[in-house]
Amino acid sequence: MIAGYETRARTERLWRAGFFFCQMALLAAVPAAALGQGAATMLSRVTPAVVNISVTQAAEQTQSSRDSFFRQFDQERERRPGPRSAGSGVIVDAQRGLVLTNHHVVANARSITVTLRDRRELSAEVVGSDSGTDIALLRIPAESLVALPFGDSDLLSIGEPVFAIGNPYGIGQTVTAGIVSALGRSLRLEGYEDFVQTDAPINPGNSGGALVSAQGELIGINTAIIGGAGSAGNVGIGFAVPSNMAQAVMRQLQQFGEVRRGRIGLSTEDVTPRLARQRDLPVQEGALVLRVDPRSPAERAGVRVGDVVTALNGRPVRSQAELRNRVGMIPVGGSVELSGLRQGRPIKVALAVAPVEQVAISGGSATVPQLTGAALADSPNGVVVARVDPNSTAHALGLRDGDILDAINRQPVGKVADLARLLQSADRFTLNVLRGESKLTLQVR
Question: CB within 8 A of 187, min separation 6: which ones?
């Protein structure tokens, strides 16, 4: 009797295990089965628009914190004689010969060669490049090119099938499939981040390649992966700049050769459930206003400290990073409508994005030993970082041109003299920094 029971129990366990693995196999096969022959037809149409990019460096690059992250994604950055395979690109305008890629793929390049799928090699020029979004725009001779149409990345859904196309390890064009794993990802690097995350296998050399929807539309520019310990290869966590952001940057690069970002004059922090409880806020997400710059568009529009921004131009704002990203993509002079709450009541204000003012240093600049390499100056908004040497201690700590130093160890600083006094004997301190529409905290040891 006991033996019979054990046999039945063992059979049931085996059946359940078999059922589980069958379920997993079916789930894994869903994207391919659902797409079928249509995927092959679509890919044969769009893959000629994805190119390989080789560069010859003008000089050895200085590695930054952003570079160290992308080491997991690109080919070796060591200087070598002659051209080297740097990454991938996407033809987005066949008539004008325009190619989108990553800024870090072509940064500091002396010459750039684009190789098409039909093996033609074409010399490329940089139309413009933006390190903030890691997007660059190239131009090649417009001769019998195939372009990839833009899709609307705002319409993406988690679980939607996608394809990554690029040139991993320089072995030649490769297509991999997966799904959209997450949206609106921020890796807290230095730029404007609103990544599409995917598990479609991407590897070193895919930088600047295409993330394509099942409809054959460009919905992202592959930019980064997170590699496992001791491995630079794919572990199923990849990131792409969404197509709407890339397209907005592309328009400014075409017009100006750079992205001319403006400001509205706010510094904010994330609204979290904990912050909402502490401040008795009726919302669980958004951007809480910490500072309104004097004479800024936000001050003129009546925005106040303590307001919560919940939407910009009708689209929800869930965090300070999202607010900063949205403002950063609006050209100078563009209109902005902020919606939010003030003491629990709805508010709505309209303003225009203003140009970033150049720092006037009437009395010269100063430095402090703990922030060597940063030229500091007094300004109407506080202590401003006028310039940062890219090879300096200050740059390594995370300071950038235009940063406002707000507080040291939670003590406000209004002038460079205040900053120097507070840092006289400090070898460890916390530095509060206002950067654009965001607030950063830097731990210095």
Answer: 69, 193, 195, 224, 239
The residue behind tokens 């994207």 is 31
158 to each of 29, 103, 125, how far by Cα in Å? 17, 27, 36
Give the model's pLDDT for residue 380.
67
According to the model, what pLDDT value does residue 13 have?
Answer: 44
Q: What is the 3-state secondary structure (H, E, C) of 177-201?
A: EEEEEEEEECCCCCCCCCEEEECCC
Number of other residues whose CB lies within 10 A of the CB of residue 359? 18
Walk along the chain (445 residues) in steps of 10 and give the mean pLDDT of each run: 42 41 38 62 92 79 40 42 74 95 90 92 93 91 92 92 90 90 74 84 88 94 73 74 93 89 83 89 90 85 93 88 83 88 92 68 58 78 76 77 78 79 74 71 74
**CA nearest to 66, candidates 104, 108, 21:** 104
The predicted pLDDT at position 198 comes to 92
Cβ atoms within 10 Å, residue 374: 25
- Which residue do the tokens 């912050």 mark? 275
Q: Are 212 and 240 in contact, with CB atoms under 8 Å apart?
A: no
Q: Would you state the structure tokens that stand for residue 38, as one six-digit string?
A: 């249509």
424 three-class SS:
coil
CA 136 – CA 104 distance, rounded (Å): 8
Give residue 400's region: left, alpha or beta (phi > 0; psi -120 to 50).
beta
Give pLDDT, residue 208.
93
Give strand pairing partners of 431. 408, 442
Q: Is 18 exposed, middle or buried (CB count within 10 Å of its CB: 0-12, 13-18, 19+)?
A: exposed
Amino acid at 62: T
In sequence order, the β-bridge partners of residue 124 are 112
Active-site positions read 104, 134, 207
Residues facing 346 on adjacent strands: 341
pLDDT at 409: 79
Kindly state the helix (H) or strand (E) to which residue 220 belongs, with its residue range.
strand 218-225
SS3 state of residue 342: strand
pLDDT (0 to 100) of residue 25: 37
Q: Please, which residues have CB within 8 angstroms of residue 421's CB and are 6 or more apart in sequence?
A: none
